[in-house]
Design brief:
Layout lengths: L1 H28 L1 E8 L2 E9 L2 E8 L6 E8 L3 E7 L2 H8 L5 H6 L2 E2 L1 E5 L3 E6 L2 E6 L2 E8 L7
Antiparallel strand pairs: 1-2, 1-10, 3-4, 3-8, 4-5, 5-6, 7-10, 8-9
Length: 148
Amino acid sequence: MRTRMILRMVLILAAISLTLTLILYIALIDLSYVEIYIDDSIIYRFIVPCGSEVSISFNNSYTGSPVAITLEICREFRGAGMITDAAGYEYYSQDILDVNMSLKTYKSKEIIFCTSQKLEIKILGNKLLINNSCARIKSRDLIKLSTP
């Protein structure tokens, strides 16, 4: 009788442990680890939920147009959209492609922007200003999912 009770307790604890592990695993799947480097030195690390946005703003050095690019983060960066003036759209599209449609197909684990002027990066309410440097932003899986 006592052995049966101990066995039931062990099974209940195992079930609770498995359930908690599964809940934690599912929660972590929807998180990404983001690193921001300036001139190859890491300066920020973030854990962000899927669907978070990173915004990169700068002035185009050729047209002088203000440009704001928005990317969504979910284990990789995905293009969301770009806002600029008519001269900026003309410069980036060359009257051939729709910049925003093209940007929506963009996917990458890493983005790099270099500027000879000012660059602003916004992520999770944090703002980073960069002058005359290169910024590299990497997205990594918090949990690496294995594929068969």
